[in-house]
Write a structure and sequence with these properties.
Layout (H helix, E strand, L loop, with lengths): L1 H17 L3 H9 L3 E9 L5 H17 L2 E9 L18 E5 L15 E4 L2 E5 H10 L4 H17 L17 H9 L6 H10 L1
Parallel strand pairs: 1-2, 1-3, 3-5
Antiparallel strand pairs: 4-5
Helix pairs in contact: 1-2, 3-5, 4-5
């Protein structure tokens, strides 16, 4: 990571000097970091270490696009005191982890990993566990990627799907290979939108 930063900075300085500052300004803009707070409602009772690793995976994906995530627990199974959290909104969207989906006509299908509506991204933990059992990846990776995909729906314009990358609508063997390698990310134009929007 440090090597990339040094090389990136050196390239920006050299090109900036060559083109009288234009490229240097563009490179400086590329390094700008945006942030967002995600409210987490765990209705599925995900093990604490699995949830932390899943959040770390989602954070890694967004950090690759220049966006930092602050995670805020709003509901954890077994908590005796309610958490003080703001209402979900476009600047503080909510992530709901549910055991499974109740199928709803043309809106939620049996093969759905998650869905997003309003300010809520919802993920089926049972479906992620089934995927882990099939051997495509480890549960924290799977949950982290699905969480990033569904949060992406809340933040990107339109349906937010793309022909490649994490926002692809259907994942095949290539996408799961990239998940295992930690290389399934937002495509560049989505990354630019996320940075600008946040």
């Amino acid at each position: 990571m440090a090597t990339f930063s040094i090389q990136h900075t050196a390239a920006c300085v050299a090109l900036g000097a060559l083109f009288l500052g234009g490229t240097a300004a563009a490179c400086a803009e590329d390094r700008l970091v945006s942030g967002i707070t995600i409210l987490v409602y765990d209705y599925a009772g995900v093990q604490a270490d699995t949830l932390v690793k899943s959040e770390q995976e989602t954070s890694r994906i967004f950090r690759h696009s220049g966006v930092d995530i602050i995670w805020r627990d709003c509901r954890m199974p077994g908590a005796s005191v309610p958490f003080d959290c703001p209402d979900p909104s476009p600047i503080t969207p909510a992530l709901r982890l549910v055991p499974r989906f109740q199928l709803v006509g043309d809106r939620v299908h049996a093969e759905a990993m998650g869905y997003s509506t309003g300010d809520f991204a919802t993920v089926s933990v049972e479906f992620a566990q089934t995927l882990e059992e099939s051997g495509v990846a480890q549960l924290p990776q799977i949950l982290g990627e699905i969480m990033a995909h569904e949060i992406g729906h809340l933040l990107l314009p339109g349906k937010g799907h793309s022909v490649s990358g994490i926002m692809r609508s259907h994942w095949g063997a290539n996408e799961w290979r990239l998940v295992r390698e930690g290389e399934l990310n937002f495509v560049p134009e989505q990354s630019r939108f996320l940075r600008a929007d946040l």
